[in-house]
């Protein structure tokens, strides 16, 4: 915000995050976000935070073996170099930015997704798979958070129940249960 010399507005809000971490927002500002590759643009109200997440990626990536298509315009030409995250957009804008283009690479390699801002690199990378570093971020407005978390845990519970029901059928009888029944 400082390098851009944007005027900030006093704002009192709380962002609820992973592990029940709450971040109090004191200021915000508005920006015009424009694509460098298309005519897409929008106005965003942004919360001011000291940082959004750790440096991403955590180490320099070598995309030379990823078989990336030629002549695509990346939203971030330096996606493979560690750097700070300047802007995190919400789900309300995310789906507006998405475009239908998608390109997949071999297993354990990232997916390329077309957006109005350019192509983005998403998912696993060979380096992240090797060193085990993976980061996930979630940001939601307070009004829907409880409802969405409840739905998440309901779906998670249903999936685990379904897996428990299907697992014995696929793997045969449970030897512990079988031996205790015959004794």
Topology record:
Layout lengths: L8 E8 L5 E13 L6 E7 L43 H7 E7 L6 E5 L2 E5 L3 H6 L10 H30 L3 H8 L1
Antiparallel strand pairs: 1-2, 2-3, 4-5, 5-6
Describe this structure in words.
The protein is of the alpha+beta class and 183 residues long. The chain has two domains: 9-131, no CATH class; 148-172. 28% of the residues lie in helices and 25% in strands. The chain has four helices and six strands; from the N terminus they run βββαβββααα. The protein has helices at 91-97, 126-131, 142-171, 175-182, and strands spanning 9-16, 22-34, 41-47, 98-104, 111-115, 118-122. The strands form two sheets. The protein has a three-stranded antiparallel sheet, with no helix packed on it. A three-stranded antiparallel sheet has the order 4-5-6. A hairpin with a 6-residue loop joins strand 4 and strand 5 (111-115). The protein is globular, with a radius of gyration of 22 Å. The relative contact order is 0.13.
The termini sit apart by 72 Å
Radius of gyration: 22 Å
Q: Give the CA-based shape.
A: globular
Catalogue the unreliable spans: 137-143, 169-183
Q: Which strand-content bin applies to the residues?
A: 15-25%
Mean pLDDT over the residues: 76
Structural class: alpha+beta
**In the residues, how many domains can be counted?**
2
């Amino acid at each position: 915000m400082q390098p851009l010399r944007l005027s900030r507005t006093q704002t009192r809000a709380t962002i609820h995050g992973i592990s029940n971490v709450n971040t109090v927002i004191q200021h915000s500002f508005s920006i015009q976000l424009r694509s460098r590759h298309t005519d897409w643009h929008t106005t965003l109200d942004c919360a001011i935070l000291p940082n959004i997440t750790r440096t991403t990626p955590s180490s320099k990536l070598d995309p030379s073996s990823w078989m990336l298509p030629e002549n695509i315009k990346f939203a971030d030409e330096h996606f493979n170099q560690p750097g700070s995250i300047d802007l995190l957009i919400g789900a309300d804008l995310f789906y507006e930015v998405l475009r239908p283009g998608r390109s997949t690479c071999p297993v354990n390699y990232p997916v390329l997704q077309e957006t109005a801002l350019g192509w983005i690199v998403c998912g696993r990378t060979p380096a992240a798979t090797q060193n085990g570093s993976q980061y996930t971020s979630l940001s939601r407005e307070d009004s829907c958070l409880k409802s969405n978390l409840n739905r998440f845990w309901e779906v998670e519970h249903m999936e685990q129940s379904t897996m428990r029901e299907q697992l014995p059928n696929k793997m045969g009888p449970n030897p512990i249960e079988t031996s205790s029944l015959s004794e």
